Target: Adenine deaminase
Amino acid sequence: MTHNKDQLQKKIAVANKTIPADLVIKNGRIVDVFNGEIVEGDVAICEGVFVGIGNYEGKTVIDAEHRYVSPSFIDGHVHIESSMLTPNEFAKVVLPHGVTTVVTDPHEIANVAGTSGIHYMLQNSDQLELDSRFMLPSCVPATPFENAGATLASTDLKEFYSHPRVHGLAEVMDYPSLQNGADWIVDKILQNNHHRNHIDGHLAGLDTHAINIYRTAGVMTDHECKTEEDARERLRRGMYLMLREGSVAKDLTSLIGAVTPQNTHRCLFCTDDKHLDDLIEEGSIDYNVRLAIQLGLSPIQAIQMGSLNAAQCYDFKQKGAIAPGYEADFLLLDNLETIDIHEVYKGGRLVAKNGSYVGTESTAVPAPAKLTDTVHAPKVKADDLRIPLNDQASASIIQIIPNDLVTKKIVGSVNVVDGFFSPSAEKDQQKLVVVERHHNTGNIGVGIVNGFGFQSGAIATTIAHDSHNIVATGTNDEDILVAIEELKAIHGGLVVVKDGVVEAQLPLPVAGLMSEQPYDVVNNQLHDIHQALTRLGFANTFDPFLTMSFVTLPVIPSIKLTDTGLFDVERFTHIPVEAQPTNNPDVIPSD
Model:
């Protein structure tokens, strides 16, 4: 934050009690995230900044009525696109949950539309009550083994470093390239270091040797830990640990035991990928804070992780605390244990009250035409979906793990009809299809997936991390084909089909990832999607669309499907659908 001379002199005068503050909070209990205490006193605000704690008079007075005055929350790593909302609407959803700053990586839209997508996200998030800080996508595409809509070199990213809300390089996902010191990733790291000093990591399934390499390259964070020992090893080597609670990846419970009084200052929260309905019903970082308290962390420690720690991680020197010189981003809490948010303030302005957004209505920047016409694929035919198998009826299968991004590679018996794989509800085996949708290449990857539990029908979406091709799964080819064609007709989104009929759809015409509709309209459409899923016999124990969207990400173990075929993440190579027959025809985990 910069000041001109008059502003600084005014703030000093208010701090000195020479003139009244713009705003004073009285009768509040202040959450001191530095000492881990609750203190009492007036809080003075001038020009959107805290300038004093003590006895102050103000032009406007807020009577906190003995509520807790807490710093607001910072999401340390989030992909706004995963909410299926534009930044303008996303802000209205997360602000009532106490999140006033997010660190976002627009690599979803960048994988579809390159620099045009990044420009759009920056423009659409400008002048909002939510402060959106950007990390530049480091790996577009995520790997060279698939087809995305764009390829971003260091020269493509250079222009963005002049933007005041760009703070570094986003999650480095292509570990083999980093390990080998590939020119393209080293160039991006060196360019970032010339302009900024922060690089995020993505160490899914990697060992301590990999941590050494990431830290040597200057990577500071990881949000892909699965065990307490994973967390300790990252902290031991100087990383910041992000405890993630998203719609699929829910890691906080398994990691919280690694957080101690000695290392808390290196721990923060993030959501990464969270769907709109989960944000509305469950919350954002406020949910992480609440869950951490339920799991035994002290409320002040949990709030510190949700505010000051995230600010310090990203070198936001004036965020994350109720103290002079810090931005007046704060919450009034009715209850410290349950994080009941009464009001949310950004820069001293009331932006949310009792769970509703009450801030300024900004004019959204509409998406340009090239961002709303991004689904380009030839017509898919039934023959394109065939999976030829030998008479032994044994095949490589992707086994999903509900509420997890990791998949297992298994080898098992499958149904074969006329030499081709046939889905089986009894065995919980469905067909999985990925169709390249950016360049009309005609590439189609096909595979077998276990764990969705559909009794009939098919689903399809253009949200398929990170290249965002079309991905579909179903119990029969006919419904899969209808779902794919419907996606093309609505320019991307989510589709549910049964018996050849479209049961529900959620159009996401902005890059096939986001809707420009108000968030409540999108939420209603999402509700219709979930209702339609029950008609497929789905048990609704996890989010099948979000789960399916990560079955295409070839940087998270252990087996995925891209437009170029099945991919073994651990060996970083393609594999055939067919597997050698085994003595045991039952499902056998590869590990």
About this structure: The longest helix spans residues 519-534. Residues 210 and 216 are 10 Å apart (CA to CA).
